[in-house]
Design the sequence.
């Protein structure tokens, strides 16, 4: 399968739930914008807004490099709640899988994201963050391509 998410410039909407350890889940919605340049670099900007209004919005800005004809890439990420994050991603037949780690954090924070392709315009996202071996939060949502 050829992926439309991440590998093509475009915009997506996302809706889902965020769950922190020992808390009630929070509904969110958001948007994702992906751009590419000719040198195999991409930028992906995401903003999620919590519908309950009791949490701060979270913004994400990824900058990554995907070598031509490869299925593995590297990226750096700035989140509004963390400053320095590095990660790697793999493209599989049905999914895009990412792993990341927070730099300079003594709790050994790290996480993962899996984007499972339902069809060319729809993906299911599952994400989680851990401190060492303990799950801290999860995010689950549906991405739909705009226009």
Sequence:
């Amino acid at each position: 399968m050829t992926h439309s998410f991440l590998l093509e410039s475009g915009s997506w909407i996302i809706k889902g739930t965020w769950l922190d350890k020992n808390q009630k889940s929070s509904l969110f919605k958001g948007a994702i914008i992906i751009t590419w340049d000719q040198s195999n670099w991409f930028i992906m900007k995401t903003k999620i807004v919590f519908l309950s209004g009791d949490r701060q919005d979270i913004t994400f800005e990824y900058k990554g490099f995907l070598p031509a004809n490869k299925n593995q890439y590297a990226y750096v990420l700035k989140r509004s709640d963390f400053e320095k994050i590095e990660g790697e991603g793999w493209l599989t037949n049905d999914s895009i899988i990412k792993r990341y780690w927070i730099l300079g954090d003594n709790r050994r924070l790290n996480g993962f994201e899996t984007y499972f392709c339902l069809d060319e315009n729809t993906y299911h996202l599952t994400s989680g963050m851990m401190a060492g071996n303990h799950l801290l939060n999860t995010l689950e949502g549906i991405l739909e391509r705009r226009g």
In short: The mean pLDDT is 95.
